């Protein structure tokens, strides 16, 4: 089915796509070589370990997914702007495990094996439990929601996510009354995800929310996007979506959720605490040292919008910060 929605440019053969990536790597090389760029270039030329990346890798459907999609949209979460084209969102990704170059994760993330997948929920809960991916389809009410996503780099998109509120999952494991934060962790597979060979970064990627943020109605666990299971570059098979915070809070490919009673270290907040706050709420008045936050540019259309406080979700979340 994916061939129907992707125009030719998406479906190009791997060989046709090569020159662009080589060009991108070379240009970055000239601009200022980083070891990561070198690693990305090396792996592109096949010096890396793991399967050859292929951007055309089809989505892998399980039997239960085939039954469930397309999922009914919850019209409570609608948007005032048009949905970002899937073929654009799918080739412009931040997924540092695979590369720091936006066009690369769509190739390299295909090497990640996402089935079977286990997600462990542990820590301050009455009923710790490890879930299989299919458990979510069986246990949760799955719905589609249209959300904005705003990267701290001042680009934005609007996408249909398929999944369920995190609160519904927490209700199953029953957080203890002393749990104050919900911490999440991405896989750690440095031989598959060669960005994780960058030893100066605090892998695996981690993120966290306060428990009040975690149980907010907007906080969503996404299993799918654009009416089908997540593509690997978007964080298959399960990721977080926190639409009122900068995109880096929306951690991909989650393997562990831990309920704790302190504010934990998180990936970007550890790397550059002055640039990436723990809270990271979208706020047009607080500039990032490298990106003015007053406006945002939509992926694909290039439309420029005024950034809105809490990314436009003031009604749902302002009370958390009053
Ligand atoms: N594990 C992990 N999760 C991650 C990231 C990452 O590098 N690794 N990047 C974040 C950032 S900065 C953004 S903007 C979004 C991008 O999601 P998308 O590629 O699906 O648009 O993912 C977030 N989640
Ligand atoms: Mo981001």
Write structural notes for this entry.
The protein has eleven helices and twelve strands. With 322 residues, it is of the alpha+beta class. The chain has a single domain (50-321), classed as Sulfite Oxidase, Chain A, domain 2, CATH 3.90.420.10. The strands form two sheets. Strands 3, 4, 7, 8, 9, 11 and 12 form a seven-stranded mixed beta sheet that branches. A hairpin with a 5-residue loop joins β1 (118-123) and β2 (129-132). The model is unreliable at 1-49 (pLDDT under 50). The chain binds ligand MTE and molybdenum atom (MO). Residues 94, 151-153, 247-248 line the site of molybdenum atom.
Task: Give me some keywords for this one.
322 residues, alpha+beta, Sulfite Oxidase, Chain A, domain 2, seven-stranded mixed beta sheet, five-stranded mixed beta sheet, disordered N terminus, binds the ligand Nc1nc2c(c(=O)[nH]1)N[C@H]1C(S)=C(S)[C@@H](COP(=O)(O)O)O[C@H]1N2, binds molybdenum atom
Portion in strands: 15-25%
Coarse morphology: globular
Radius of gyration: 19 Å
Helix percent reads 10-25%
SSE topology string: HHHHHHEEHEEHEEHEEEEHEEH
Sequence stretches where pLDDT stays below 50 over 5 or more residues? 1-49
The number of helical runs is 11
The set of bound ligands, ions and cofactors reads: ligand MTE, molybdenum atom
In whole angstroms, the N-to-C terminal distance is: 46 Å
Mean pLDDT, to the nearest integer, reads 87
From the coordinates shown, what is the CATH architecture?
Alpha-Beta Complex
Helix/strand/pairing class, anyone? alpha+beta
The CATH homologous superfamily is named: Oxidoreductase, molybdopterin-binding domain
Q: Kindly identify the CATH topology.
A: Sulfite Oxidase, Chain A, domain 2
Number of domains: 1
Summarize the main sheet: 7 strands, mixed
- By CATH reckoning, the class would read Alpha Beta
Number of strands: 12
